[in-house]
Specification:
The chain is an alpha/beta fold and about 500 residues long. The protein is built from 16 helices and 22 strands. Among the domains are: about 150 residues; about 190 residues, no CATH class. The chain starts with a strand and ends in a 9-residue tail after the last helix.
Length: about 500
């Protein structure tokens, strides 16, 4: 739902073409010449198919048959396992293609009970690998198998059906990637066969295991582009070796619940996206010339982030206000999470997208963030219930920000409940952001109605908006947040905070 200066936008109707009310010109007079140009009608006996129908069907089949087996096999390998397997009920050619196409085997797509360790599913995995005659493209298994079914897992990984595997995922169960340190410390190493794909893997999600120094020492993932370590025990030296040496082409890195590492040091010329949800005390971006996105699914209460060299950093968040001991350092400027930004001698002009959890009543924080990120184009803000001592900080004046300082084009306010501070926050940008195109308010379902929309349009003074192109948009509250479950796909997204709902 969008609203402009004229209230709710009316639903568009599919109208006829212009001139619908004009009289149609009379048909041209029939002449001998016109008659000769008219197509001749061939009489057809009832019940007979059109003359070209059978030929069209044959031509369609011929087109599919003309596609090379290699291309058809690649198409089948991109299908979910169940859909790809259905081709076996077709002709012998399709059965041949299924058995020789690059294998896409996802444990979650196998028919069985809800039990993760279902014996029937494991039997199916063994049967599929034994029958498949092609190479492997993708293998997706529960991370718990590394601990509970090590022998079976080792046999699967050694199967010729997985030769040249490109994607290997050991997924972790649970909404949030967290576990007590005691549990992580009891993890066992994965079977050695897991590393036999190091020369072909492009995507790897490793979870629920202990990566020893000896195992990491000789690793070299030449083709790896995306890596996630989830619920993993690893030494600080081994982790830094994986990032800096073992994966020379790494672009996306997700670190979640990493045990054994106090400080994450990032030195990589190729990394473009980093997601971190770890109990580690420190993250240092020493040299990351290609880094564009730095995401915190859930920031550690005491983590210190120092950005030394990240000249292309464009996306940052989510930054929570509630953890007063956390901080982010850019040069000589310190963002003391939950309190303030100290020393605005340094500003970050590269950041275009920012997500923060904040108290809208704290004008100081809003002003400081806007001045510290002067080229900000997208702001995602969610109100938090801050302690009372933080709400008293309200000394600066909105006038410190002029219309020329604000380059925001999109603002998303999550959990919008029409509180006094939320209204003041939104109205300020409506009245002062000259480049604003969209303000999205995510509301509860009970407020998603025309009356509420019209009321907010009036309260926020949309008729006085600074940008003629600004629109007020409404959506029901969505649970898509990077602060929840994060996947490697989030790191690949240009705007990981955006929701397509």
């Amino acid at each position: 739902m969008e609203m402009g200066s004229d209230g709710p936008r009316a639903k568009r109707m599919h109208l006829a073409a212009p001139g619908i009310h004009e009289e149609a010109p009379p048909p041209p007079a029939a002449t001998a010449e016109a008659t000769d140009l008219e197509p001749k009608v061939v009489e057809q006996k009832s019940g007979e198919p059109p003359p070209r129908a059978e030929k069209d069907e044959e031509q369609l089949l011929d087109r599919i048959s003309s596609v090379s087996d290699h291309i058809l096999g690649e198409i089948i390998s991109l299908l979910p396992l169940k859909e790809g397997a259905r081709t076996q009920v077709l002709s012998s050619k399709w059965r041949h293609l299924w058995r020789h196409a690059p294998l896409n085997l996802d444990f979650r797509g196998l028919p069985a009970s809800d039990n993760v360790l279902s014996t029937s599913r494991c039997v199916l995995v063994s049967e599929i690998l034994a029958a498949h005659l092609g190479s492997g493209r993708r293998l997706c298994l529960p991370g718990s198998h590394i601990q509970c079914r090590a022998d079976a897992l080792d046999a699967w990984l050694r199967s010729p059906a997985l030769d040249n595997l490109q994607e290997l995922e050991f997924y972790f169960y649970g909404r949030r990637y967290c576990a007590p340190d005691l549990v992580v410390n009891l993890l066992l190493p994965p079977p050695a066969s897991i590393f036999r794909f190091s020369s072909t893997l492009r995507v790897a999600i490793i979870s629920n295991c202990y990566l020893t120094d000896d195992a990491v020492e000789t690793l070299r993932f030449k083709q790896l582009r995306r890596l996630a370590l989830v619920h993993v025990k690893i030494s600080e030296v081994s982790l830094h070796k994986i990032i800096s040496v073992s994966c020379p082409g790494l672009e996306c890195l997700l670190l979640s619940t990493i045990s054994g590492v106090r400080c994450h040091r990032i030195n990589s010329p190729t990394l473009r996206s980093i997601g971190i949800c770890s109990s580690s005390d420190e993250l240092i971006i020493e040299d990351a010339p290609s880094l564009e996105r730095l995401l915190y699914p859930e920031m550690n209460k005491r983590m210190k982030t120092t950005v030394i060299c990240a000249p292309k950093l464009e996306t940052l968040g989510c930054i929570p206000e509630k953890y007063t001991k956390s901080r982010i350092v850019f040069g000589s400027t310190v963002i003391q999470v939950g309190l303030r930004i100290d020393n605005l001698a340094t500003v970050v002009r590269t950041v275009k997208i920012l997500a923060i959890h904040m108290t809208f009543s704290d004008q100081d924080m809003v002003i400081d963030f806007m001045r510290f990120f002067p080229c900000l184009e997208k702001l995602y803000a969610k109100e938090t219930n801050a302690p009372c001592e933080q709400k008293r900080r309200n000394r600066k004046n909105w006038n410190l920000l002029t219309s020329l300082d604000i380059r925001l084009r999109t603002i998303v306010l999550r959990c919008y409940r029409r509180t006094h501070f939320q209204v003041n926050f939104a109205a300020f940008f409506v009245l002062n952001a000259r480049m604003l195109k969209s303000m999205r308010l995510e509301v509860e379902s009970c407020n998603y109605n025309e009356h509420f929309f019209a009321e907010q349009h009036e309260i926020l003074q949309m008729e006085k908006r600074a940008s003629r192109h600004a629109r007020l948009c409404f959506a029901t509250y969505c649970h898509h947040e990077v602060s929840g479950t994060m996947h490697l796909d989030d790191l690949d997204s240009t705007d990981p905070f955006a929701c397509g709902c």
